[in-house]
Amino acid sequence: MALQRAVQLSSKKPTYAVCVVGVETHVDVHRDVPKGAETFGVSESSGVRVFVVYDPEQVTVPTGQARWPLDASVGVTVSVDTASKDLNDLKVKVSYFGQHGGDALGHGVLYLTGVDISLDVDTGRTGKVKRGQGDKKTWRWGPEGYGAVLLVNCDRDSLRSQGLDLADRQLTSLDDLQDMSPMVLSCDGPDKLFNSHKLVLNVPFSDSKRLRVFCARGGNSLSDYKQVLGPQRLSYEVRRQPGERKVSFYVEGLTFPDADFLGLVSLSVSLVDTGTLPEVPLFTDTVAFRMAPWIMTPNTQPPLELYVCSVRDSHGSNEKFLEDMSDLGLKANCRLIICPWIENRNDRWIQDEMEFGYIEAPHKSFPVVFDSPRNRGLKDFPYKRILGPDFGYITREILLAGASGLDSFGNLDVSPPVTVGSKEYPLGRVLIGSSFPKSGGRRMAKVVRDFLQAQQVQAPVELYSDWLSVGHVDEFLSFVPTSDQKGFRLLLASPSACLKLFQEKKEQGYGEAAQFDGLEHQVKRSINEMLADRRLQKDSLHIQKCIDWNREVLKRELGLTERDIIDIPQLFSLKDSYAEAFFPDMVNMVVLGQHLGIPKPFGPVIHGRCCLEEKVRSLLEPLGLHCTFIDDFSSYHMLHGEVHCGTNVRRQPFAFKWWNMVP
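== Protein-arginine deiminase ==
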């Protein structure tokens, strides 16, 4: 139990004090004692616990008629078990004696009023508020950790609301309460005590812009929930009603962890004695919360919804692509959602516009879409069409400069769960493309990188993607789920693997088989021509070095070995020193469970089959994966994107609870 405060005892008149249940009060028995007193004894009424604190090396515990010495090394503390029924109904009596005992030389009497004050939240992370017994004012990670969780109220539960729920100062929907964390104030004690004492709820100034607190009293109408703390509201006097033992509150999160915010906030309640000037806080109870981080979901999580845009512009319609996506979604039992062209304004790159994730507390979880700062044709779609009841929205804007290509979310990915040495990443690690190892160059905006880093649970890894014309990580890597112990494979685009395959086919006598066979308005290139193309060979050597640099980073940062990586044959060519896919980029696939939607490469056809497709099937299908090759050549590839760029997938959240990890 925590030491509360000291109460000075008098041998001339009774002393009165308030004692909070479960909190020790030190009783000063030395300050005012009768003349000649050298020892003392203590007695107490039922409901009071008395503890004599002493140094066993200096003091011997008295036996029989012996008393405690009035020694500086001997002290007295008291505590009460329950709240009092009436004022001053508990009593502690200290009797003072001379050197030789005999009758008491005097007495000090302490009258106590017990009051039960406790501020409680879901410290145990069970989804329910329970009376806290441990440390409530700190927050600890891990399976043995403790501390409550706040959700950022970034959805829109009320159809009448124009923005996010967190922008509303007053409650607009009772459903909104489910997005908040409950908090209970216990305040049991004699009603008369609160005529001279008050309960004050406080939030630190630095935390006041991070949360709101609503007081719940009365019925089930919106007017029964009053905002009492938050921005510009640092304290609130809780008006306890006669006989009231508990007051309920709901706490709303307003901001995600970020560069200027570690994610921790606190609230406290104080019992204040109003009978003194200045008013004196007698007791304070504090609780801590951590804002739930935004969590991305990797390809290994089961798909729930597949998003794709319907477009019709000078490049033609993508109707056939939509049909292929519909078929793939049916195979994977994944709902297809088509964004019509009137809403996407012929911006087909829905992967670049947004990234799906989720936030979770023990009592509630909901998906949250992260809107990228690219702000092209799809810029309003996440806010206008995805934000809604139990579907949140976040974004980060670049204030001074415009977005670069690396700020699109095709340049944002996340690995499956990995272990690196002894360090576990049970929610995987975020992957973003950057200009490393070059000096200068393009890099994802700091405001986005800071946000991702601040979430803590998916420690970001920066990769080198600035060698690509578009510059996105999804152009050279992907992850696919497997049913073995590892649970996944990393796919990397590989010019070396492609050239090796073509060399094998040439040696088998198929050198005249042509790339782009079957495509109209596209110059065909035979295997012999491609292998003899010195520029293509030189470009491939350079690009392979760029990918190999990333390969070593991924092995080191994700704890991978070579057997965890599959090389997917792929050629690139350089244009103005930046790489573009020579044929549809097969790693830029959409992963729907075991079903893969892979860009159709239109490779050399041998015995009626595309040798590139056959090679990829031989690599992936033994792992239990099903390959569907989708023609995206004119509608995506020719516009410098592929299947993954033109789709987006909302996935099932992790079963693992983020608060059980140790960042």
